[in-house]
Amino acid sequence: MDPARFHASAAGRVVKTPGGFYAFVPAPLPPKLGYGQDLVLALSRADAALSELSIAGEQLPNPHLLIAPYLRQEAVLSSRIEGTQTTLSELLMDEVAIAPAQRDPGDLREVRNYIEALEYGIARLSELPLSLRFVRELHERLMQGVRGAHVTPGEFRRSQNWIGPPGSSLANATYVPPPVDEMNKALNDWELFLHDRTSLPDLVQCALVHEHFEAIHPFLDGNGRVGRLLITLFLIERRRLTQPLLYLSAYIEAHRSDYYDALLRVRTEGDWRSWLLFFLRGVQETGVHAAKQARDIIGIREEYRRKVRGRPKALALVDEVLRSPYVTVAEAQRVLGVSNPTARTAVQVLVAAGLLQEVGGRRWRRLYVARPVLDILEAPMSEL
């Protein structure tokens, strides 16, 4: 890490460790912020998009129809940022016990862990506020059973880590987070700021909380995924979201280079403005995208419920394939609690209605997909 690049004393300080390498210690939050016209406008637009999405969540006839597929898409994209290659279709096929072709089981495990960690976090908010203890619990579930012997699930690091291209070391890393002693103090300061409910607008505080967590980098692995989980959980805790429908990983993955550059400029130049603009634009675009997805999926629900009216088992199966677009007859039998012939009939009713289509040409354990639903979930933001 080149200490000369980190010249903004308001953002933090560079220290030389006993090992001879340099590390960065972020200054406690909050920084002094200037709210120029562009930042005020970005905050206003992000707030409006978030409020619209929250209202849409309140009006959903069955929120779980959207929560489940959104959560899975977020898990796929957040894990992809860290290098896993699992697609949404592969994850959904795995959930109905159809093994995806040529997919590393370790990738699937990491994505499933993300889902479990977020579901756990949402439930845990009713018992425990966001805190260092909460973060450790999230990390424990996120990293349980994943590859690598060094991940120490649920434990803050006791050794130095660094960020840089493959093959880099402490000597030539792009960024070296604070040494362990400084890290522990920075985490305590971060937790105090996390509990502050009066100083800043929620979205601004959320952006600062995320950036600072990434700067501290308190785990040996999984920091990025935990940091992204905290965005959604923060907004739910502050009651800015009625349902967990806003996930920024799609925006971050689409602008990955800009994301990392904005984070680094905070540390090197104290450029909080660029980071806040990036974050707020992400909230705005993601909120608009999620609200459009919600409307489209509910539209599909109403269309196919009309088409199969009078067929109660097929009607119930419509909601199930909106929640998880891949289905087998065995899975339909399980979720509907009916006999195999009855489940097969319900599936065929949805095939005839145009919601399901068979994929893969399998003779046994035939697989069906709700293509209209999957197309909405997989569409890039620019296409919605």
Describe, in plain words, how this protein is organized in 3D:
The protein is mainly alpha-helical and 384 residues long. It folds into 2 domains: 290 residues, Fido-like domain (Fic-like fold), CATH 1.10.3290; 76 residues, Arc Repressor Mutant, subunit A. It is built from 15 helices and 5 strands. Strand 4 and strand 5 form a beta hairpin. Helix 7 runs antiparallel to helix 8. The model has no long low-confidence stretch (mean pLDDT 90).
List keywords for this structure.
Fic-like fold, three-stranded antiparallel beta sheet, Arc Repressor Mutant, subunit A, 384 residues, single chain, 15 helices, two-stranded antiparallel ribbon
Q: What is the end-to-end distance?
A: 41 Å
Structural class: mainly alpha
What is the third-level CATH name, the topology of the largest domain?
A: Fic-like fold
The whole-angstrom Rg is 23 Å
Estimate the strand proportion. Answer: under 5%
Task: Write down the overall mean pLDDT.
Answer: 90
- Put simply, the count of helices is 15
Question: Helix amount, in percent?
Answer: 55-70%
CATH homology superfamily of the largest domain:
Fido-like domain
Unreliable stretches, pLDDT < 50, 5 or more residues? Answer: none
